[in-house]
Amino acid sequence: MIKSLLKTVVIIAIASVSLGARAQLVVDITSGIDDPTPIAVSPFGWSGGGVLAEDISGIISSDLRRSGLFSPVPKEDMLSFPKTPEGVVFRDWRILGTEYIVTGRIEPQSTGYLLTFDLVNVFGQHKMFTKQVRGGQTQLRDIAHRAADEIFEAITGIRGAFSTEMVYVQEETRGGKPSYLLMRSDIDGARAKQIRRFSAPVMSPMWSPSGQELAYVSFETGRPAIFRENLRTGARKQLTNFKGINSSPTWSPDGTKLAMVLSKDGNPEIYVLDLVSNKLTRMTRHFSIDTEPNWMPDGKSLVFTSDRGGKPQIYQLTLASGQVDRLTFDGDYNARPRVSPDGKTLVMVHRNRGVFTIATMDINSGRVRVLTETTLDESPSIAPNGAMLMYATKRGDKGILAAVSLDAGVKYNLPSQRGDVREPAWSPYFE
Amino acid sequence: MLKSVKTGLGLACVLAVMAGCSSNDTKTDGQVEVDEPVTETAVETTDFETTEPAVPLENVVYFDFDQSLLKPQTRELLIRHADRMRAATGSVRLEGHADELGTREYNLALGERRANAVRDFLVLQGVDAANLEVISYGEERPAQMGSNESARTMNRRVVIN
């Protein structure tokens, strides 16, 4: 019985080309849903020597809290610290109103650690599962995030995205000279590390669907050019060097093509570069600005920003027919569209009463919903589970990253302790 | 001898523009042709002979939000730039910029549209398009930091280099 419930999740090491740890982003939750589910992650047992470098149960609690859907019970309020489902005294937890308890045990292994953890339903008085996660010496945080993913999915039915990462741009000024850093971190802002440092601006980082590569725009050659970089090997290739703008690279869902913006023929147009054949195809023909393409999940059409109607609005381009349809009509500035994984919702920068906010639009009904209330919000990037999005905003004059759920119920900030941060790109799942 | 004539001609051009005259569109290459009005104006303004060879022109022009339309004062300034460019050799870089409002990729396009507007105007004034290079930095290189309207006004610009 227990055996059949036992599932081992092995974490595959993702080699990084990091150059040392950097200043981290600190989470600061600003709002959650009205009625989050009370859950207790009882401090895990450790059968090895010394003290573990990371507080695994603490990280799981933080992940669940950041989702906004859970209110983890503080350690100080717990009457006992059960390590197994058998050790749970249900009455004690019912008094606290706790609906779920997580118990767990960490064992040392020759090459790392093994976490065995259980999810217990307090009111039903039954164990929901026992699972295991294994990871290497440096992967304690990965083990915690993977366990949090499993717990989150078991309770909400939504796949967890705590094991994902993000890339972003950080600008620092030293001695009056700006540096532009392409950074990578866990999605909670921890383990931030530099991918590459530039002396000229870098912008528009985008993950490949496999999560192994990035595409971005760098001005290092004196003008904007599109690069692709393998995160595992650090190998890098300049893809375009046309006169004028080379911008907004975005991978097709199958990873074989890159949509981009080039102004080599006079003004910005959308192109698709086939990464296998190297064939470049022009997709739009209009004297206006056409930019910021993003693929629909089926890969059959692109959404993009155009001011062909006089103001920036979002349009959809069907690739097979070349037909262009306007999608947004609400407001005089809608731009930088991103499509939710189910293809039903558009996320965009929307000017609302003079301020730039992040909004969603239901593609079928056209209904727009403003998610944020700060004034300079931009660069929304959706989590692979479609539950949250990360965006860039300003606090004072400083650029910070923030997250909001697609239903606007949950919000948190990730201010950087150093420099200005912007242009977050949420990674896909790392399979 | 030739040098002093050249200086006089340069001065005359500046003065002609200041007086609101439209410039003549003959291109000056190595050979200098001296017309009557040129020598006349040069002689009249003895106090200008100390400023040498000509006052530097303001090299930044500004735009309204989400606009690439050249303002009247911008056009006046660009006419003076065009006069100099026709007389000079070498290429000129037109750097387009945007303020922080709006999205980054759209602003990259907007910066290019502004620089193109300046380029097209200069070409209409007889400047060789081959000598004009357009580059956009969008909002990535603000002239002035800060999230306020005075900084944004300074950042919506094209720099003539």
TrEMBL record, chain A:
Main location: periplasm
Keyword Signal in annotation: yes
Gene Ontology terms describing biological process: cell division; protein import
InterPro entries with a match to the protein in the record: 6-blade_b-propeller_TolB-like (IPR011042), Tol-Pal_TolB (IPR014167), TolB_N (IPR007195), WD40 (IPR011659)
One Pfam family this sequence matches: PD40
Position of the signal peptide: 1-23
Purpose: Part of the Tol-Pal system, which plays a role in outer membrane invagination during cell division and is important for maintaining outer membrane integrity.
UniProt family annotation: Belongs to the TolB family.
HAMAP family, per the entry: TolB
Protein name: Tol-Pal system protein TolB
Organism annotation: Microbulbifer okhotskensis
Name of the gene: tolB
Automatic annotation (TrEMBL), chain B:
OmpA-like domain segment(s): 50-161
Signal peptide: 1-19
InterPro entries: Bact_OuterMem_StrucFunc (IPR050330), OMP_bac (IPR006664), OmpA-like (IPR006665), OMPA-like_CS (IPR006690), OmpA-like_sf (IPR036737)
Keywords of this entry: Cell outer membrane, Membrane, Signal
Origin: domain of life: Bacteria
Subcellular location: Cell outer membrane
Keyword Nucleotide-binding: no
Coarse class of the protein's main subcellular location: membrane
GO cellular component terms listed in the entry, alphabetical order: cell outer membrane
The keyword Ion transport appears for this protein: no
Name of this protein: OmpA family protein
